[in-house]
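Database export, one record per block. Field names are fixed; values are copied verbatim from the stored entry.
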Amino acid sequence: MTSSKHHPRAGRLSLPAVTTILSLACLPVSSFAQAGASSGSKPPSEKFSSADLYTQKGSDPSFASLLEKKAFPVGVNSTGGVKGSTIDVNKRVVDRPAGKAHPIPQDIKIHTLCNSVIPRKHFERWTRWYQEDGNTQVFRMFKGEHNVRNSRPDAGRVEAFSSLNWTRGDWHEWEGTYTIVKPHGCAIFQAKNSINDWGVMINMNDRGDITLNHRKHQKDEVIAKGMTGKSFHLKVRDNGHDYEVYLDGKKVGAGHYARPKGRTSFRWGMYGKTFKHDAMIFVTGARFK
């Protein structure tokens, strides 16, 4: 005996449901990729050529020629600066991975191979190594360059550093989006103590691989490979003893390093030995608190 209870026909869809399916069918594949990215998964970083990332106006003399012409004194912190060509960042490309980028902090200083403490009001004197374009900081080094401000060998660098500094206690954090334009083996980030040296570094090699460098207790770890022409977001948290490192929103490491004296601050840019070839990176939307 059959039941008199009504059963709706299988497969019948309401008009709104049909409309929704047809609308989804017309969407490009990229729309689904974007939807997935917003739910927490980050798509692979797109690779760009140097020509896509910036244009250059003017040229830069070799480091050897600057030494020969005595463009700056050797053995002291010089204040005259060295001008360089202008890097015009392609913001349409470089700003995109950073999302809504934060403006460059005003309360920072820079350290070049000629001077270790350059205030913001003098940044324009040092455009060979450091420039700002929109929300992006441009860090450059050239073949053969090394420290000249004192007798310390090698130690070629151009870094920005925070006025914020601390002893063990409260947590502080730094974040920004790196774009690797011309990679070179060096440190690109340090949580640096004024007496006990760095507690954690983020390093880069000539292939554009990015390494988390623990000073003590753990082995170093490659956290991103082949980043030349690509971007990644970095966040580092530090409380004067413990630290945490995040890459593209994912925690990739943590550790500790005792710093019983001095004060810790954030430094970012490029710091290495004598540079074997030209190097350049961008940092967009850097901020700290």
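Remark 1: Helices lie at 15-25, 29-38, 50-53, 63-68, 91-94.
Remark 2: Residues 19 and 25 are 10 Å apart (CA to CA).
End of record.
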